[in-house]
Amino acid sequence: MSAIPADVDADRGPPTVVPLGHFLVGLAFLLAGVVTVAAEPGDRGGTLGTVHLLLAGWVCVTIMGAMTQFVPVWSNVGLYSRRLAVWQLGLVTLGLAGLASAFLTGRYGLAPIAGLVAALGFWTFVYNLGRTLRGVEEFDVTERHFAVALAWFLAVTTLGPLLALDLTLGLFPVAGVDHAGLLGAHATLAVFGAVLTTVVGALYQLATMFTQTELGPVERRFQRAETVAYPVGVAALALGRLLAHGWLARAGGLVVAVSLVGVGLVLANRLRLTRVDWNPMLTRYSLVAGFAVAWGATAAVAWWIDPLASLYGAPNVGPLLLAGVVGFVVAGTLYHIVPFLIWVREYSDLLGFEPVPMVDDLYDGRVAAVELLLVLGGGALLAGGDALGGGFGRAGAVVLAVGAALFAANLALVVVRHGDDSIRGLLPGSA
């Protein structure tokens, strides 16, 4: 069997339909987001809509599903409320769909209402996971990162409705804080706080679990330092941008960049020493390691020069490298989680009684290879669009959209081919 941990108790998590529902909704947001990228919305509303579809929709909804399923499993505690786990998905889906529609259509008056609905869903998620983590007697490194990430989720979803209100009512500047500062803090807490804190915490667990290796002494020392330094760096970067304080943002940005370079090196070393066969998940994790090191090195230079203007690192390349880090972590993890959940539900009881497929047999490896090439090629064309000409950028967006569609279809077919009726009922258009 492909990297199935022996001590995982899937019964600790919610019913399989709950995380799978999050993952399928996340894939729907991914497809909507890449379609808007291919359509090249050039105005501010189009950019805001695309960012929220991809970051809040695909990435954050997927994170919600993954944490709801695996925090109880990793921490050996029961999920506080399965009902709240269902409600969080409904509220976030409705709110983010409305928010993206408001931005894309220019109807900004709807944004505060939709943003508040989405925030209620995220607050439900934070409460549910927070109460779940209260049952843990002593936090390990992953649980500490997740607890901090929940605080960032709470902060960023509190700032979001304020930004939406400012678009329509013009609430800011207030007490020296203007719209640009609030937006900078919001983006920082979303990407480097909520998303990447979760990603880093999960990678410490997944990089060892799925390579069947253990961290070395140097890596453990770095891990202890990063666990303290990274949240401080995120807080300083966000506060510096909120208050337009250059040196505070610069110091925080350097800590964030160096921390993510270190995480990339740890991940690369675990992959170098892996004891399992290479698969689509590990292939994408290898790209994550490279992108993390490249992003951190370029971001450190850019933020030293101007930490307030460059939101996501070095101009032009920073956002794309960062998208590679986040996107390939999510994609690689989904290539294991979705088949694994289906395998546990449909085949685990048959093990030893009749032939059963391996986890990696549930999806099509050829499609995974093709979509990876399309995503990389499309991303490269999109990144070089300014230098090569606008046509190349547009072509890159289309190629990227095709790759994302193949990725979503490959995972959805796992549900169609191997899931029972209750699982298949999650798919759009099902009765």
UniProtKB/TrEMBL annotation:
Keywords: Membrane, Transmembrane, Transmembrane helix. InterPro entries: Cyt_c_oxase-like_su1_sf. The chain crosses the membrane at residues 20-39, 51-72, 84-104, 110-129, 150-172, 184-207, 228-248, 254-273, 285-305, 317-344, 365-383, 395-416. This is Cytochrome C and Quinol oxidase polypeptide I.
